[in-house]
Specification:
40% helix, 3 domains, Rossmann fold, seven-stranded parallel sheet, 16 helices, 435 residues, single chain, alpha/beta
Length: 435
């Protein structure tokens, strides 16, 4: 970080406070806290900046200031006649570094499908005022060549009003923060909430958790990633909606029939900064497995950038870090025999789907919200979260090749779903809905 940038940051902080500093340097900082940028400053400089509370800088943003009148106005705006034909759609999408991963890629699958139906899609980026629109649009068109009519709008809440945005037939929020923008945007006939996880659980129980949970009571109709997640938000919050089942791109994810590893190759989805993936439990599992099996196994990790030495895993694993292209991810999966992953929220994540499609035997933690997909000793092995319990299940697959092959075979049958079916299911529900 240059001295010039540091001085500019301090000046901005003193002048505009936590919100201003964070916005100038990192926007919503991928929605964790607005002061993630503050953490990047050297320690001596941090002492020169009076920060009362990191979370305060985030939740004090004016977008989160709503009352019962806002909720009532939103309800009234969407209580009129349904559009005869959906011609325009506004999508409130958070800033993304890489398009081709996880939830962002899923969102754009649906935007792309709507485009194929003749919809003019506006992608509203609400948390990065300095977005390079030209580059972002080029990235989108590279991944989805049919999206020539897509429009990107950068919404800067400091210089724009929510009603400066163009009217639309439908509007869709895609992350809990974006639900607050959509609540106040009433130049639309229908509002939808694209839900891909129980996002309050991304945070400890507290202020941010409360703000995230509140969005499920805004009464938008849900477009929900997995029936288990829809059931969870419906039972807890009364949110109505339609669910889809994630599919796998079988042109990318498929088994390698010639795979003949001399060692059993095990993959762990390793993300230290995502609590729901229980990275620290995974570290213990890796150590126990290597103590037990030594050179009989090989362990590979990927998912994020981190240093093996910090966790005592130097020379025990091959860490691929953050792999930036899907073909590289798929190629790695095809090389592996077993994949284990933790998911502690109400969505199974994409790893079990991709593991199964790639011919890997899958091991993951017991999670009642995901039992619609995961069937113990049929298409996967399920374990209590304790490292010893997980090692027990992984060991069964290392020691019993017949069991491993049976799990692989059933896993392949599980992921025969197609994305085209799922995107069309949602389109038909929206287009034909009478409400």
């Amino acid at each position: 970080m240059s001295k010039k940038l540091i001085k500019k940051g301090i000046k901005t902080y003193k002048k505009q406070g936590p919100k201003g500093f964070a916005k100038k340097t990192a926007g919503f900082a991928k929605h964790k806290t607005e002061l993630t940028a503050y953490r990047l400053l050297p320690s001596p400089l941090k002492k020169r900046i009076d920060v009362k509370n990191e979370e305060y800088g985030f939740i004090s943003n004016k977008v989160f200031q709503i009352d019962s009148k806002d909720i009532q106005k939103s309800k009234e705006a969407t209580s009129g006649p349904k559009p005869d034909k959906i011609k325009t759609a506004n999508w409130f999408v958070p800033y993304f570094d890489h398009l081709a991963f996880g939830g962002i890629y899923t969102i754009f699958r649906f935007i792309n499908h709507f485009a194929s139906k003749g919809v003019h899609n506006r992608i509203i980026i609400y948390d990065r005022p300095d977005l390079d629109k030209k580059k972002t649009l080029a990235d989108i068109k590279k991944a989805f060549p049919n999206m020539d009519n897509a429009e990107i709008i950068v919404f800067d809440q400091d210089s724009m009003a929510i009603n400066d945005l163009p009217s639309s037939d439908i509007s869709v929020c895609t992350f809990w923060v974006s639900a607050y923008f959509l609540l106040k945007f009433n130049k639309t006939k229908r509002k939808y909430y694209f839900i891909q996880d129980y996002e309050p659980l991304f945070y400890p129980g507290g202020a941010t958790f409360a703000l995230a949970e509140s969005t499920y009571r805004f009464r938008f109709k849900g477009i929900v990633n997995t029936p288990g997640l829809l059931a969870a938000v419906n039972q807890r919050h009364g949110l109505e909606g339609v669910s889809f089942k994630p599919a796998v791109d079988r042109t990318l994810y498929h088994p390698n029939p010639e795979k003949d590893n001399k060692k059993v190759k095990i993959f762990f989805y390793a993300r230290p900064n995502n609590p729901r993936n229980a990275f620290n439990l995974g570290v213990q599992i890796i150590k126990q497995l290597t103590d037990k099996y030594g050179d009989k196994i090989e362990i590979v990790t990927a998912g994020a950038s981190w240093k093996e030495r910090q966790y005592g895993l130097h020379k025990l694993i091959k860490n691929r870090g953050l792999i930036k292209t899907l073909p590289e991810v798929a190629e790695l999966y095809r090389q592996c025999d077993i994949g284990f992953v933790y998911m502690l929220s109400k969505h199974p994540s994409y790893q079990p789907f991709e593991f199964m499609a790639s011919g890997m035997a899958t091991v993951t933690n017991n999670n009642e919200d995901n039992l619609w997909l995961l069937r113990h000793e049929e298409n996967c092995l399920l374990s209590e979260p304790s490292p010893k319990a997980m090692v027990e299940q992984i060991s069964r697959l290392i020691d019993d090749n017949e069991l491993r092959q049976r799990i692989v075979t059933e896993g392949l049958k599980t992921v025969e779903n197609e994305w085209e079916w799922q995107t069309d299911l949602i389109w038909n529900d929206i287009e034909k809905s009478k409400d």
